[in-house]
Fold this sequence. Notes:
This protein is mainly α. It has helices at 7-15, 23-37, 66-79, 98-109, 123-131, and strands at residues 3-5, 42-44, 93-94. The protein has a three-stranded mixed sheet.
Amino acid sequence: MTVRLRPHHLLCMLTYAGKGYSPAFTANMTVVVERIAGGEPIEIVSGPDDICAPLLSESDPHCHQESVAERDRLAAEALGPIMDSGAPAAGSGFSLDRGQLGQLRQAFRHGGFRVACAGCQWQELCSDIARDDFEDAIL
């Protein structure tokens, strides 16, 4: 199988430590991150992805908001110089290896992606996890 991810979720998975919007979201995010850790390939999508699934039944899921689409755009631009294949675009795919994960984490730790995180309610938690060398991150 392939994990479908929107660009800003490439950043979220770097610091994911088992916390989320709801128990259903957290359980799903854990499964998705474990699939990636197990070597499943990733396909970049535009709009809601495998991580968004539990939120889509809400009356007004934030997954469809313009601010989230802008976060995706900013994340894709910021990831471009780090990713071997360039900026992640809808339909592109890749597998995440340990070396690339380390590069992404280093860039995240040093603020290379933070423009895409502006306004996110999880920004402080993610910063703390990065500051602690991703010790609590699941991936």
